[in-house]
Backbone:
């Protein structure tokens, strides 16, 4: 039982390049989330997926797209990277209930440290 | 909107000292409250949680009580260890309107360093 896994762990991009961050969970969770962590700002929600087949914007969605590929996988794409997207990215999942509110605990992956030059 | 405010850090303590990290919140509904911990180079782990007023969450010697009257959820530990050195995040999940889907709102984090 690996929990939440993320790839890659580190990445350096040049401005304008694109990349996709991968996330997978093996806990059969319905809900998945992408956060970014910046110094002094805690974690901010980029996008989330309440259930397979649905995605919604979080607090800071600009410059990102997501895909809920199946119940296990939730990817985050940067189409044209900018230096402001230099951050640590965390994927999380939670039991949730499809189409219903949830107060469930979230389980986090180890993070991807992204630098955009 | 919802928000979480944590005490300014970093916090530096000697081993066996008493720890308090303050957390206050603003929410429109009836939030659940959480403390997450992040050890160096790792992702966040749930430390403890409370889902309604006056609930006390506890784990690994840490405690926090959900105080609705003061909108607070302060983290305490009676005797810290070097291994407690980490970043601590207070967070809330608000189900007002029934559409939160478990989304968390985080505080800015407090860095704790414990010296031998």
Residues:
């Amino acid at each position: 039982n690996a929990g939440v896994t993320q790839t890659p762990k580190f990445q350096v991009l040049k401005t304008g390049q694109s990349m996709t961050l991968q996330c997978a969970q093996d806990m059969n969770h319905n809900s998945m989330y992408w956060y970014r962590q910046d110094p002094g700002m805690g974690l901010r929600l980029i996008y989330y997926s309440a259930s397979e087949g649905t995605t919604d914007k979080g607090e800071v969605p600009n410059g990102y797209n997501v895909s809920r590929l199946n119940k296990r996988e939730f990817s985050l794409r940067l189409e044209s990277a900018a230096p402001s997207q230099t951050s640590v990215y965390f994927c999380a999942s939670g039991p949730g209930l499809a189409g219903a509110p949830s107060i469930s605990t979230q389980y986090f992956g180890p993070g991807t440290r992204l630098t955009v030059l | 909107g919802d928000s979480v405010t944590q005490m300014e850090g970093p916090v530096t303590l000697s081993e066996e000292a008493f720890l308090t990290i303050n957390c206050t919140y603003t929410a429109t509904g009836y939030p659940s409250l959480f403390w997450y911990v992040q050890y160096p180079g790792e992702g966040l782990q749930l430390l403890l949680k409370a889902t309604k007023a006056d609930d006390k969450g506890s784990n690994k010697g840490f405690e926090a009580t959900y105080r609705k009257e003061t909108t607070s959820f302060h983290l305490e530990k009676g005797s810290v260890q070097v291994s407690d050195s980490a970043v601590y995040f207070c967070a809330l999940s608000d189900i007002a309107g029934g559409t939160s889907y478990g989304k968390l709102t985080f505080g800015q984090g407090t860095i704790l360093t414990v010296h031998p």
Remarks:
- Residues 93 and 104 of chain B are 5 Å apart (CA to CA).
